[in-house]
Amino acid sequence: MNVTASDTGSSRHRVVILGAGFGGLFAARAVRRVPVDVTVVDRTNHHLFQPLLYQVATGVLSEGDIAPPIRDVLRNQRNARVLLGEVVDIDLAGREVVLETIGERRRIPYDSLIVAAGAAQSYFGHDEFAVHAPGMKTVDDALELRGRIFGSFEMAELDSERRDAWLTFVVVGAGPTGVELAGQIAELSRRALKRNYRTFDPRDAQIILVEAADKVLAPFPESLQHRAHRDLERLGVEVRFHTMVTGVDADGLYVKLQDGSSGRIEARTKIWSAGVQASPLGKILADHSGATIDRAGRVSVQPDCSLPGHPEVFVVGDLMSLDHLPGLAEVAMQSGVHAARTIARRVGGDTSQRPFRYRDLGTMATIARFRAVVSIGRVRVTGLLAWLMWLFVHLVYLTGFKNRISALANWAVAFLGRGRRQRAITEQQVFARTRTLEPPSAAERR
């Protein structure tokens, strides 16, 4: 089945955008006043504000606060439509995208294509770790982790013999996501769950942050790394450097230390935040075009973000490899806008090539309530002021007025008070991954 220009009653220049993350959404908005027809394709029906997923996992925010429907976000953009499905192939010669939705395939033609498919969690060749150590890249991931985190406290109330294992939380990877998760779990146990349980004190929970390297927040300046490390320790987080995970099971994980010795950590809740892998669309593009991809699966692009040999195709955000740019939301936003503006100029008759220039607006990470680190140029900010700056920036970039109001209300409860409004968990959230990824038992095979 083909989805053609006639479906929209127009024969204008057709722009197809794959992915409605930061890169795709900003690209779509950048051509809202350009005489083109825009088709946004995504495997989910929502735009995900990924930097706040960890707050969904720790009960601060609801999934609706950070994942508004794509159709609602673009409802007033008359030249845009949204299609739900998984892109399984890209026909560069025929200029068509192959979309699969519930087993049914469609071909979507394009004149210009922006591929903003983002990245997924990487287990560095050990995908089996995902069964017992979920990553955090989707709403499903965050809800599952919420179930596992709060479920562990529930089980600690019931199971006194294995209480220590239930109250041990291991976060793998000390990048921004790992630091933020460890800090929030520590705050949850030390502050938010006070007087909620009768047979144990939630403050006895042990939060361990393991990192194969020798620092937290590696992309940040050294002074901020030290400050973040100190703040984590003050919160009660145990940071273990030079610790590489070599195995994961339901009851804990195996680690290898710098001196070559091995060890084991007994923990029922493990969270993986150690690496990312680009979307499989990167390999599809490379196979069809001859472009090169790096170890993380990112596609090497021209200076204007276009695919080598195919100036009508742009690769942006986490999927592109250009000038060693980091996988940040700001890179995705700016590269998406650059690609969209290039298309707009071409439609207007300007075919000149303009290289993408990334403007570094700084980096920031929050450790816990009133604790954050911010780096903007040569300026370094820590503590309460940094936390307020972090709060303001994330509030501004949240999509939709209603989402901002809801997030503010939840933040007020969590940060000014002691509560966590989003603590509902279900069996399906906790066990769906295990049932899907674990090999069937002998009884199930019969």
Question: Could you explain the architecture of this structure?
Answer:
The protein has 446 residues and is α/β, with parallel strands linked by helices. It folds into two domains: 5-43 and 85-121 and 277-347, FAD/NAD(P)-binding domain (3-Layer(bba) Sandwich); 127-274 and 369-430, FAD/NAD(P)-binding domain (3-Layer(bba) Sandwich). The chain is built from 14 helices and 23 strands. The protein has helices at 22-30, 53-57, 63-66, 70-73, 139-158, 163-166, 176-192, 222-235, 281-289, 329-347, 383-397, 401-416, 427-437, 442-445, and strands at residues 13-18, 36-42, 80-84, 86-91, 96-101, 104-109, 112-115, 119-121, 168-172, 206-210, 237-240, 243-249, 252-257, 262-266, 269-272, 276-278, 299-300, 306-307, 310-315, 320-321, 363-368, 371-376, 379-382. The strands form seven sheets. It has a six-stranded mixed β-sheet with strand order 3-2-1-7-19-18. A four-stranded parallel β-sheet has the order 11-10-9-15. The two termini are 39 Å apart.
